[in-house]
Amino acid sequence: MLSSIIRRLARVLLWCAVGSVLLVLLFRWVPPPGTALMVERKVQSWFGGEAIDLQRDWQPWEAISDDLKVAVIAGEDQKFASHWGFDVSAIQAAISHNERGGSVRGASTLTQQVAKNLFLWPGRSWLRKGLEAWFTGWMELLWSKERILEVYLNSAEWGPGVFGAQAAARYHFGVDASRLTRQQAAQLAAVLPSPIRWSAGRPSAYVAGRASWINRQMSQLGGDEYLKRLEAGERF
């Protein structure tokens, strides 16, 4: 009986693994209809007694400001074009920092953030971290860097119930995602670590300073030339 249970469990795990890879492969071409984070925010609003309307309007790569693409990379993951989903040096630095105590520092790449927001529940368990690594690896293998960034820009949270670049641009600046200025893009990227607490449209002194730093980093990355190399599939 025990061996039969083990075989059945193994088959279930195998089918789950195959299904997850097929789902990642599907989203290489098909826009994800939503994310696990969006579901979480909706459920939280129900239990909090203040239901929110989620705002999200998927936009293809060409309809999103190039400045926003570079700004997000500059602010969140400057090694995006070179790593395979994991920034080992950042992980080691975060572990060392966290061992000393104080505020907890993360080291998630853009790919890891997509995996976490798209497929997984909140929390810090080892199981969740393992699944995050699983999805991250398959996305790096099956998706282009351009696709990873496109899904990220259409899934990131930028305010209460505000998801994706188009909804964020409309909510904070009253423009479409394709018409964001460089400064507006930098301000949107600046609030990504805490989009509920910080406002891109009404930046605090800290957010304004962070946006200025991101603006300088955008120039150092190479701006449009950086995107051309990314679109060409280079690892650099």
Can you describe what's shown?
This protein is mostly helical and 236 residues long. The protein has one domain: Penicillin binding protein transpeptidase fold, CATH 1.10.3810. The protein is built from eleven helices and two strands. It has helices at 2-26, 36-48, 66-76, 88-99, 110-119, 126-142, 145-155, 165-173, 182-190, 205-221, 224-231; strands at 157-159, 162-163. It has a two-stranded antiparallel ribbon with strand order 1-2. The relative contact order is 0.15.
- Strands ordered across the widest β-sheet: 1-2
Going by CATH, the homologous superfamily would be Biosynthetic peptidoglycan transglycosylase-like
How many separate domains?
1
Order of helices and strands: HHHHHHHEEHHHH
- CATH-derived architecture: Orthogonal Bundle
Strand-residue proportion: under 5%
Cα-atom radius of gyration:
19 Å
CATH-assigned fold name: Penicillin binding protein transpeptidase fold
Contiguous low-pLDDT stretches (5 residues minimum) are none
Distance between the termini: 54 Å
Helix content: 55-70%
> How would you sum up the global shape?
globular
- Largest beta-sheet details: 2 strands, antiparallel
Q: What's the overall average pLDDT, rounded? A: 92
Number of helices: 11
In the CATH hierarchy, what is the class?
Mainly Alpha
Q: Structural class of the helix and strand makeup?
A: mainly alpha
Number of strands: 2
